[in-house]
Amino acid sequence: MTTQVVRPAGAGHESLWVAVLSLAIxxxxxxxxxxxxxxxxxxxxxxHQIDARRDLNAAEQGIHTELVVAFDEIxxxxxxxxxxxEPQRLAEEGIPPFTNDASTVTRGHHAWQLLQVGxxxxxxxxxxxxxxxxxxLLLPSAAGADIWLNRASDAAAPxxxxxxxxxxxxxxxxxxxxxxxxxxxxxx
Length: 188
Description:
The protein is α+β, with helices and mostly antiparallel strands. Helices cover 36% and strands 19% of the residues. It has helices at residues 11-36, 58-81, 87-92, 102-106, 163-168; strands at 49-51, 111-117, 120-126, 135-141, 144-150, 172-175. It has a six-stranded mixed beta sheet with strand order 1-6-5-4-3-2, with helices on one face. β3 (120-126) and β4 form a beta hairpin. The longest helix has 26 residues, at 11-36. It starts with 10 loop residues before the first helix and ends in a 13-residue tail after the last strand. This is DUF6162 family protein. The chain crosses the membrane at residues 16-35.
């Protein structure tokens, strides 16, 4: 009887080539990722501002969104009426947050009024429950809806609608920022 030993054909070499190929794939992937990545520095808001996405609670985010959408409706009604519509008219038109429906109670039961201070106008929603949501101001401007928030339980109608006076009275401007955390940029 003869015994013949058969050694594996280059098992050490095959393992070496698999390891080298795996390392090359990892290095190539790391290079592609480092070349395509962008640094995304989070933009901070000014001291008198509050970020709509990060700093508002759910009820306040809902009211803020409704005010942004209502602003376009307000402009259309203003063209039709030749004056800013009263909150009662906006409620009759079914424009939230001016309507009195089930969401009104769950979002702080705001009492809306149209303020006129000199030549300036604003819609003010004083919160009935500041623990749920703060009071809001919507200042119509050519640049768009300028929205301010005051979480104080004793928030009152401001005597001046200019930014410095609002800041001094405890109001904070709601800033909407859209960075990479909110939207993705696709380059084609």
